[in-house]
Amino acid sequence: MSIQIGDRVPDGTLGEFIETATETCAIGPNNFQVADLVKGKTIALFAVPGAFTPTCSAKHLPGYLELSDQLKAKGVDEIWCVAVNDPFVMGAWGRDQGVDGRVRMLADGSAAWTRQMGLDFDLSARGLGVRSQRYSALIVDGVVKQLNVEKAGQLEVSDARTLLDQLA
Predict the structure, then answer these.
(1) 56 is catalytic
(2) Is the whole-model pTM more than 0.90?
(3) Pick the CATH number of 13-166 from 3.40.30.10, 3.40.50.720, 3.40.50.970, 1.10.3720.10
(4) Catalytic-role residue among 56, 67, 106, 137
(5) Domain ranges within the chain, ordered by starting residue
(6) Does pLDDT of 81 surpass 80?
């Protein structure tokens, strides 16, 4: 069963490729605990089946980049893009798309967190392994306030405009 509105997101580990070292993060892949990341924050999360895939690269991620300022103006602290890819791939995709810190490119390399969310699907028959369903969610202090799960092959309800309108 998948996570529902009103549920607390499961804890888990997501990886992020850090481009610039800080006091708390080294350059390269760093792991973060979801419970720590969501504490006291409003997160606009969207998940994609894979980095560099056609719909994800041409429409889904660019929509969130385009509306990032508007989302933040409505109280969103961070925008997350989660995919079942490794942190190196997510970092490269972020550089390719010109993310520049507007979206956190978070890797769920083994799909462990995606499985806990109940939003995984198996594309092994097509040689792609377990992936995330395409969805968006508004998470406030760890609790799901909005959840928009796409039908297979669609990008109709998890786009940035829909989530922005749900913040109104």
Answers:
(1) yes
(2) yes
(3) 3.40.30.10
(4) 56
(5) 13-166
(6) yes
The 10s digit of each residue's pLDDT in 116-155 is: 999 999 888 887 778 899 999 999 999 999 999 999 888 8
In the prediction, which pLDDT does 168 show? 65
In tens, the pLDDT along 23-46 reads 777 788 999 999 999 999 999 999
Q: How many whole angstroms separate alpha carbon 55 and alpha carbon 45?
A: 17
